[in-house]
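Appendix B, Record 12. Input sequence as logged:
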Amino acid sequence: MIGLGVGIDYALFIVTRYRQELHRGHEPEQAVMIALTTAGRAVMLAGATVIVSLLGMLLMGLSFLQGLALGASLTVLVS
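Logged structural output:
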């Protein structure tokens, strides 16, 4: 569920930025480049933050949380 939520959230963020650039009159290729350089950076930083915070659960020492931390981190990375 974490991967689904993160994937949808980040995709909508980039698509919204792309559509804003289209409405400003840019060509689709140029709108993609602008969206990825602006929103793409934010998505990468937010994804890295989520991964680091999920991996922080490894420090708790509970075995069931370690599996959850690794699985959720990998899912966010793939998303």
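The CA atoms of residues 10 and 40 lie 9 Å apart.
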